RNA sequence: CGGGGUGUAGCGCAGCCUGGUUAGCGCACUGCGUUUGGGACGCAGGGGCCGGCGGUUCAAAUCCGCCCACCCCGACCA
């Protein structure tokens, strides 16, 4: 590509609304342009890198038996009504009517379409196992797009789906993905870890998330030196052992204008850990066809944070939202001064963290504005319907496996794998006839990688103060050829020769000063730079520089193509050497 | 959805508080000339419904109201 002909330009300054380095660089270097919140155009450079990433995705999916298909981005709503997700998912799914007034949806994901294919095309166990995948646009009207391509509303995803006749088959395909995903990220030179994850709205039994560890990540992970690692949504931890203490009599104390745990601890001069915190949430349950809301009253130790994912799983709700003050008052509780003692238990589901029964003499609300109770004791003063772990793990909490303090780190979820089971094939009738003559639902797995998020994560990992430093595997070009004054003719000839040798070359033939060309080369970040100038030609040479290194090297003009091929091979071999077997961890 | 912030040329910004010539600066862009190994210089240019609507006023980028868009934190999220 001759730069003088390329659509798009580099920017000296990044737009003010780009905060994350990788976002700034992708915009400045001319890879992406924003169209709206969470909606981006891929420019020629961004497109080339994306194609590189997608090629890797295809190769690795094909390698484990994937068959590429292409499913639509617009779906009839009927499919989503069949699995219930039409009702379950809120604003995040965009809906519209076609000209006949039929409900349509923009695809957020494709489980329903796959299940529909299953019921149309799979009849026998002889047709299993199978694996299909596609690369397709997804639309999720996310409440908060952010950080460039890291979190967008419209994005391209590689999603694959496995179809099996039994759990063993699913496990086999799941493990194949587990390894293939590491291979994919390694080929992109992106370091990731796989962590246990909540199955969330996908349902199913087991899930891993592939996390790129970085402060710009939006998920929090808990990591232990012993190897335990999990998303905070589900991370376990070892609860502290409280000191034994005799239960004392309940005592009502006036606590005027003390409505928070902080204020309460200060007012009574006690640690927050000696208080019980009450949190109210409205939970939605499906009963028959209707949704029913019920107030969940959760109690955790005052210094700990409620984990809504754990709570949601504990009460088996499909949705949780903060309760309004009126809803809290309706059950006889007073926000800020609430406790389970003396509450109308008919109307609520009381859930107590499993640490609470071991904690004697906690301070809790009196359900009366301005008053708290000292020395409340679980079992004597109240009992809960559910006792479960409903607290979020934090930095420094003890590892559930080894008991040592854990570290909290942020991460970007660049991929995930799910054992879905029969959650989609049962409601949609995706059955097959098994060897034993019985009809059974096909067992599914679902596996996703967002290509844009992956591209930006690579940039976040590989950059310096001058710009991007692409790994050669996903670089938009292999070689950035800089032609300076006096070297135009030789550069143009070299450009043709390099391309003829199979190299992808970005040739800066613009009428610009050397400074501008070098700055742009650094910004765009192509791994191998070759400069041809009057100065170099006087010595009969060209100048090589790797983007990631500072030193330059003179190479005889006639050896330039060979040298470029050699560098490319070396860099590719380096990347390839990182692709290794990763032990599978549940 | 809650909190905070920003909308003035392609990008970065000043002007607004205290209303009043033709709305300004840097980069980018066009032409000419000089320059040429790390974002050059001179001269001459082009480009703006000052986010939108409404109001106050003789007069609004500037004051007031409503709306919209975008960004950040949180909530949410396969």
Structural summary, described in words:
Helix 1 (21-28) crosses helix 11. The chain folds into 3 domains: 44-216 and 409-460, BirA Bifunctional Protein, domain 2 (2-Layer Sandwich), CATH 3.30.930; 251-388, YbaK/aminoacyl-tRNA synthetase-associated domain (YbaK protein, Alpha-Beta Complex); 477-576, Anticodon-binding domain (Rossmann fold). Strand 22 (431-433) and strand 23 (439-441) form a beta hairpin. The two termini are 47 Å apart. The strands form 8 sheets. Strands 3, 7, 8, 9, 10, 11, 12, 21 and 24 form a 9-stranded mixed sheet that branches. It has a 5-stranded mixed sheet with strand order 16-14-15-17-20, covered by helices on one side. The model has no long low-confidence stretch (mean pLDDT 88). Helices cover 26% and strands 30% of the residues. The protein contains 15 helices and 31 strands. It has 586 residues and is an alpha+beta fold. It is globular and about 95 Å long. It binds one RNA strand of 78 nucleotides through strand 21, helix 13 and helix 14.
Throw out a few tags for this protein:
globular, RNA-binding, 586 residues, five-stranded mixed beta sheet, BirA Bifunctional Protein, domain 2, YbaK protein, 15 helices, 3 domains, alpha+beta, nine-stranded mixed beta sheet, single chain, 26% helix, Rossmann fold
């Amino acid at each position: 590509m001759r730069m003088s002909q390329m659509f798009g330009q580099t920017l000296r300054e990044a737009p003010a609304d780009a905060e994350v380095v990788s976002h700034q660089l992708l915009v400045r270097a001319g890879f992406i342009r924003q169209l709206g919140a969470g909606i981006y155009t891929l420019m020629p450079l961004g497109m080339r890198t994306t194609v590189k990433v997608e090629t890797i995705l295809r190769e690795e999916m094909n390698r484990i038996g994937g068959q590429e298909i292409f499913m639509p981005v617009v779906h009839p709503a009927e499919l989503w009504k069949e699995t219930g997700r039409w009702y379950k998912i809120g604003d995040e799914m965009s809906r519209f009517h076609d000209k006949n007034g039929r409900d349509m949806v923009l695809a957020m994901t494709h489980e329903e379409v796959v299940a529909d294919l299953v019921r149309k095309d799979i009849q026998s166990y002889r047709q299993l196992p199978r694996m299909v995948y596609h690369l397709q646009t997804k639309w999720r009207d996310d409440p908060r797009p952010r950080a460039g391509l890291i979190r967008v509303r419209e994005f391209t995803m590689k999603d694959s789906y496995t179809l099996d006749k039994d759990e063993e088959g699913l496990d086999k395909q799941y493990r194949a993905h587990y390894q293939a995903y590491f291979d994919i990220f390694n080929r992109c030179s992106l370091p990731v870890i796989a962590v246990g994850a909540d199955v969330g709205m996908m349902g199913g039994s087991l899930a891993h998330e592939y996390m790129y560890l970085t402060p710009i990540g939006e998920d929090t992970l808990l990591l232990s030196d012993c190897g335990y690692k999990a998303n905070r949504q589900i991370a376990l931890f070892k609860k502290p052992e409280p000191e034994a203490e005799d239960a004392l009599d309940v005592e009502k104390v006036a606590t005027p204008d003390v409505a928070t745990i902080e204020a309460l601890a200060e007012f009574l001069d006690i640690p927050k850990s000696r208080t019980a915190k009450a949190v109210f949430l409205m939970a939605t349950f499906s009963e028959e066809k209707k949704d029913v809301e019920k107030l969940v009253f959760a109690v955790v130790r005052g210094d700990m944070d409620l984990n809504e994912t754990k709570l949601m799983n504990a009460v088996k709700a499909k949705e949780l939202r903060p309760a309004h003050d009126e809803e809290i008052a309706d059950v006889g509780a007073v926000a800020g001064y609430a406790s389970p003692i003396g509450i109308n238990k008919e109307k609520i589901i009381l859930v107590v963290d499993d640490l609470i029964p071991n904690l004697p003499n906690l301070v809790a609300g009196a359900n009366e504005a301005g008053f708290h109770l000292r020395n409340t004791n679980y079992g004597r003063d109240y009992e809960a319907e559910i006792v479960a772990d409903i607290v979020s793990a934090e930095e420094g909490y003890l590892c559930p496996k080894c008991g040592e303090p854990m570290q909290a780190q942020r991460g970007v979820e660049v991929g995930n794998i799910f054992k879905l089971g029969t959650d989609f094939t049962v409601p949609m009738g995706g059955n097959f006839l098994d060897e034993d003559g019985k009809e059974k639902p096909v067992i599914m797995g679902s596996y996703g990688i967002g290509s844009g998020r992956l591209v930006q994560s690579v940039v976040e990992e590989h950059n310096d103060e001058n710009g991007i430093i692409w790994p050669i595997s996903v670089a938009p070009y292999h070689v950035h050829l800089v032609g300076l004054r006096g070297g135009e003719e030789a550069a143009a000839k070299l450009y043709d020769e390099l391309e003829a040798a199979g190299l992808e070359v970005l040739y800066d033939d613009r009428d610009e000063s050397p400074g501008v060309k070098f700055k742009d080369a650094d910004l765009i970040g192509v791994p191998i730079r070759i400069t041809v100038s009057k100065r170099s030609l006087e010595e009969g040479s060209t100048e090589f520089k790797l983007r990631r290194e500072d030193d330059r090297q003179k190479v005889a003009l006639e050896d330039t193509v060979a040298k470029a091929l050699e560098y490319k091979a070396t860099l590719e071999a380096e990347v390839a050497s990182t692709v290794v077997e990763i032990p599978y961890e549940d």
